[in-house]
Amino acid sequence: MAAPYEHEPVLYEAVLEALALQGDGRYIDGTVGAGGHGEGILRGSAPDGRLLGLDLDPQALALARQRLAPFGERACLVQGNFAHLGALARQHEFVPVQGVLLDLGLSSLQLDRAERGFSFQLDGPLDMRFNPAEGPSAADLVNELEEEELADLIWRYGEERQARRIAQRIVQARREEPLRRTLHLAQLVQAAVPRKRGRIHPATRTFMALRIAVNRELENLAAALEQAVEILAPGGHLAVISFHSLEDRMVKQAMRREEGRCQWPTERPLQECPYFRLDPEGGRSCRSYARAYCDLPARLRVVGKLLQADAEEIAANPRARSAKLRVAERLAA
After folding, report:
1. Which CATH superfamily is domain 12-108+218-267+296-330 in?
2. Are 98 and 110 in contact (CB under 8 A)?
3. Cα separation of 199 and 127, whole Å?
4. For 240-280, what is each residue's pLDDT tens digit?
């Protein structure tokens, strides 16, 4: 039975190609959502391929169970955080795996439902939790953080230049009454940062920052990337779709680091790098220092170039406009 929700998975064909699906492979979708990519993975890995689908959102999992029901036991769906990817994979006997997919960010399922509190265009409770039963909400943050902490959060996660003005306006407003509704917050931000013609809505970055903080998205992503490499079989593929610069930067840097590329800051003495060696037996030549060597292990090989949606896909699915897909292959030990 098809899911009663119109779901357009982003970069669908590119993801399936990137995972190099095999007929008996094991795959993990760390953000299974409504099951769009998961369905493609199961079809492409027939007859015996299996999928472990994870998601924090119980509503998304309910839709995924409907959509993937025809695949029977080949689909294993679990409510869980991909920050615990390794433990969940071992618990459900999905180690090693031939592919891991992480489709990051906010889904239309969450954005389009006012009661979830993600949208600055729909009036709803100021929540923003992927799992509504877990952790502090966005309302808790805007009502409890000190002004400086709130400004720092909006700047760090939203890259919002007017973070201090926005935090000041929020703190002034909450002295009269707590902030509980999305439109109330959006109006406060808009008053602090007047909209310029042709630009994004003034509340876009603030709402993104709060969502990232509420769900600990960057911390969880860092943990998931590390564990994904550990559980991939040699030749297995890691595919990550990001939607904003902070995520994409993390993914890019993590893949480069796992390729064995030097990440040492240029302003610090290279001799302090824990992988720096003067002994030629220590590893390959250091790229930054003559007659020195580096033993930073290489566990991944980046596959192809950064992929983005074409004009046709963006027209059909505007959410794909900011999507970026990076792919890497696990090297043999």
Report:
1. Vaccinia Virus protein VP39 (3.40.50.150)
2. no
3. 26
4. 999 999 999 999 999 988 987 777 777 888 788 888 888 77
**Domain chopping of the chain, boundaries:** 12-108+218-267+296-330, 113-215, 268-295
Please provide the CATH number assigned to the domain covering 113-215. 1.10.150.170
Positions of E strands within 243-323: 276-277, 284-285, 293-294, 300-302, 307-308
Contacts of 154 (CB under 8 A, 6+ apart): 160, 163, 166, 167, 205, 206, 209, 210
Q: How far, rounded to the nearest angstrom, does the alpha carbon of residue 324 sit from its chain's CA centroid?
A: 11
pLDDT of residue 59: 92
